[in-house]
Amino acid sequence: MSKITDLNKIVENGDFENVEAAVQSCLDDGIEPMDVLNEGLVEPINQLGEKFANGDIFVPELLIASRAMKQGAAMLKPLIVSEDNPSMGKAVFCTVEGDMHDIGKNLVVMLLESAGFEVEDLGMDISPEAVVEAVQNDESIKIIGMSAMLTTTMYAMQETIEALTEAGLRDRVKIMVGGAPVHEDFANMIGADGFSTNAPTAVDLAEKLIAQ
Ligand code: B12
Questions:
Q1: CB-based pocket (< 6 A), ligand 1
Q2: Which domains does the chain have, with CATH numbers?
Q3: Whose CA is nearest to atom 65 of ligand 1?
Q4: Which of 2, 16, 41, 181 is 20 to 30 A from residue 86's alpha carbon, by CA?
């Protein structure tokens, strides 16, 4: 079995005690940190998503696998995010109110940081008011990124944009949105400035928005 397959199994089983050793073993074999992240850690989460959708596994299994994935990703972060990148600009990111999915958001944040953006990560289940407060408190914030993974919580993005408009802050920032249920028509409908489907294209989008 390859080292990546070993790591896949460890994440799938939520075996957080062994995840760091398995990540290290991949790195020792010369596998690039980004490949360890995508193929070793994210891929098993995607596969578990299919099993979850089919009713073959349930929330607890997803939760423990997610924890193992996050532990491995935390170990890779210093290898992916360079500290001495020139600043491309400041962004604030969150998963919207009511939503506890943060794996995708964390990946986008990690790649933005590696591309030279400074990112304030507010976390998950973040209210529109908290986003408004973060923008009010820091004039250097140029981009807001919002993630939603549930069809029920994606409308919290719209509420957040409305709250920013009411606070007179909408024109000061560019707003990008993403997450599995989010699509371009929805992004346009709620008045976002951009949308993308994955972390690398999210970086391209942020660079485009900051240049506008
Ligand atoms: C892991 C997971 C969980 C974990 C989350 C752990 C965590 N800390 O994140 C836990 C167990 C907590 C969970 C809970 C629930 N979940 Co869940 N979960 C998933 C699962 C399997 C994977 C999500 C994931 O991490 N994918 C991997 C990452 C890398 O991909 P991603 O999130 O899509 O992110 C990428 C892009 O979307 C994009 N992106 C993401 N954010 C942003 C932001 C910006 C600005 C941009 C530009 C791009 C961008 O870039 C990312 C990187 O490439 C999905 C299935 C799926 N196929 O998505 C279900 C899924 C999202 N969950 C679902 C459900 C139903 C639930 C629960 C309601 C289950 C329950 N009965 O309790 C709860 C809800 C809890 C809540 N209030 O949020 C459904 C949603 C259905 C729907 N239509 O709304 C899904 C689709 C599963 C399914 N098929 O039924 N879940």
A1: 42, 45-46, 48-49, 52-53, 59, 62-63, 66, 98-105, 107-108, 145-147, 149-151, 176-181, 196-199, 202, 205
A2: 3-80 (1.10.1240.10), 89-211 (3.40.50.280)
A3: 150
A4: 41
